């Protein structure tokens, strides 16, 4: 009979199997359920391990564990709009339950999309349909491939299992901070597409949905494409992401219930990765077993209620241009699976309370975000090449001084700009306050080798498409299932994928 050992401490230079041999002599095999790094004091690994005794085999994970129910569905195929994590996993869950569906994505396939993005980064040639935000794989295609999430959901093991099935590293199923890496995500997304097609899902790439078809005022019965083709269905899953501003405008036109949602805006800080390793691992910074160090920082002002925090920290990563529209400047971070780049980066953002700043104006946050991205673009254009990312050394940002050009990880290049003059005053002050607090938490964080990039504005969607908690359908329009980051119900690859699965399950449940 197997035994489970929790909180098993293993020094970085010790061997896990030798440790297990002492606990269970002559064990046959073991399965790691969780692994994390504890860098407090002398760094070490902490495991949860299931150990199987002599002559005992580890049973394979059964599909029954994921509770996929087969149903008979003799209606018009459900429609999924958007091929990001939410849309792909909604479609995946549907076809695995025996329901054929249709998936529409305005952008290109993952391989072509990579070419379009590289053309933008290198030459400034922007494709409004195929970029860092739009296209097969969604915004998650260009990220660290982080799978860590704060939500609790029984669907998470299913998400991780399927990612491994399509080519993700097996370790994501047990690491405390799992990530796939942008390089590996690009290779597994086409495999998901191939499986969906083989299972009965029709996929329409480069096919932009221009409007939702509705009758009787509030019943959705399909979609209309930009080329005027129409497809009917009483089940439409809307998974268009946090940057599809045209979709939000259309929803407003047809009266879909929405509400403003708090979000965050700030900058992206970059340090030499060796410096972050030194701060976090101290004298063990060169130990390759520990990998590239990361961090998570937060400061909350109890007087104002405003928070400043790090977000989407990318060890060994790159700062990238991630615009989704013309004449705007937006940055983000990404890293490959190996996380072996010379720099570490993370967003440092300030929480923006919707009610406090925009009242009942549902689109107030989105307008504010767009205006700031546009203003940043014009600052950069005046100083240099508009395809580049604006940068200012952290020390100069605090002092309000000009910076000279510095070494960067960004494939788009950078232009020195007074970011302290672009940001609204309260955001600038809060970032400085946060940076100074972070220096006390991580001495060396305010290094002269660190620099800030702008503008980080897509951490989450400033709008929520309200839905029923049980059916997951829009509160105003029957048959519309808003999901993922764009609907305001997720933040990251895993939570978006979970939300897509939940929407599919809501449809499946109607036919059991």
Architecture overview:
This protein has three domains: 55 residues; 232 residues, 3-Layer(bba) Sandwich (FAD/NAD(P)-binding domain); 194 residues, no CATH class. The mean pLDDT is 95. The strands form six sheets. Strands 13-14-17-12-20-18-19 form a seven-stranded mixed beta sheet. Strands 6-5-4-10-22 form a five-stranded parallel beta sheet. It contains 14 helices and 22 strands. 29% of the residues lie in helices and 23% in strands. The longest helix is centred in the last third of the chain and has 20 residues. Helix 10 links the parallel strand 18 and strand 19. Helix 2 packs parallel to helix 5 and helix 2 packs parallel to helix 14. It has 512 residues and is α+β, with helices and mostly antiparallel strands. The chain is globular.
């Amino acid at each position: 009979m197997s035994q489970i050992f929790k909180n098993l401490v293993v020094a970085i230079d010790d061997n896990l199997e030798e440790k297990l041999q002492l606990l269970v002599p002559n064990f046959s095999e073991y399965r790691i359920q969780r692994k994390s790094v504890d860098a407090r004091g002398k760094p070490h690994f902490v495991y949860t391990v299931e150990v199987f005794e002599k002559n005992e085999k580890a049973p394979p994970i059964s599909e029954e564990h994921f509770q996929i129910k087969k149903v008979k569905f003799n209606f018009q195929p459900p429609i999924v709009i958007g091929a990001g994590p939410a849309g792909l996993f909604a479609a995946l869950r549907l076809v695995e339950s025996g329901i054929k569906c249709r998936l529409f994505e305005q952008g290109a396939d993952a391989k072509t999309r990579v070419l379009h993005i590289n053309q933008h980064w290198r030459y400034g040639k922007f494709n409004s349909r195929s970029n860092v935000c739009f296209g097969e794989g969604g915004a998650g295609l260009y990220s660290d491939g982080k799978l860590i999430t704060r939500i609790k959901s029984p669907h998470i093991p299913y998400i991780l299992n399927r990612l491994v099935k399509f080519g993700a590293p097996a370790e994501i199923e047990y690491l405390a901070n799992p990530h796939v890496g942008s390089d590996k995500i690009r290779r597994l997304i086409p495999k998901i597409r191939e499986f969906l097609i083989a299972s009965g899902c029709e996929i329409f790439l480069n096919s932009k949905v221009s409007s939702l078809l509705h009758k009787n005022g509030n019943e959705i019965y399909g979609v209309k494409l930009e080329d005027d083709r129409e497809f009917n269905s009483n089940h439409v899953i809307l998974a268009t992401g946090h940057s599809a501003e045209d979709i939000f405008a259309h929803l407003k036109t047809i009266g879909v219930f929405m509400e403003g949602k708090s979000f965050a805006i700030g900058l992206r800080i970059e340090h030499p990765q060796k410096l972050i390793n030194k701060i976090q691992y101290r004298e063990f910074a060169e130990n390759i077993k520990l990998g590239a160090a990361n961090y998570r920082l937060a400061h909350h002002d109890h007087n104002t209620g405003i928070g400043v925090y790090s977000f989407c920290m990318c060890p060994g990563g790159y700062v990238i241009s991630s615009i989704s529209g013309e004449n705007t400047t937006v940055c983000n971070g990404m890293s490959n699976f190996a996380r072996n780049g010379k720099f570490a980066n993370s967003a440092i953002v300030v929480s923006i309370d919707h009610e406090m700043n925009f009242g009942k104006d549902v689109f107030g946050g989105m307008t504010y975000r767009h205006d700031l991205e546009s203003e940043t673009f014009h600052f950069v254009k005046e100083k240099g090449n508009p395809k580049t990312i604006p940068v200012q050394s952290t020390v100069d940002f605090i002092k309000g001084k000009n910076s000279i050009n510095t070494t960067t990880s960004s494939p788009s290049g950078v232009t020195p700009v007074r970011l302290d003059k672009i940001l609204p005053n309260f955001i600038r002050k809060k970032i400085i306050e946060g940076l100074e607090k972070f220096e006390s938490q991580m001495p060396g964080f305010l290094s002269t080798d660190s620099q800030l990039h702008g503008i980080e504005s897509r951490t989450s969607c400033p709008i929520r498409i309200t839905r029923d908690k049980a059916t997951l359908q829009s509160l105003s329009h029957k048959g519309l299932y808003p999901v993922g980051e764009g609907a305001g119900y997720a933040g990251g690859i895993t939570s978006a994928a979970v939300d897509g699965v939940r929407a599919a399950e809501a449809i499946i449940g109607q036919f059991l």
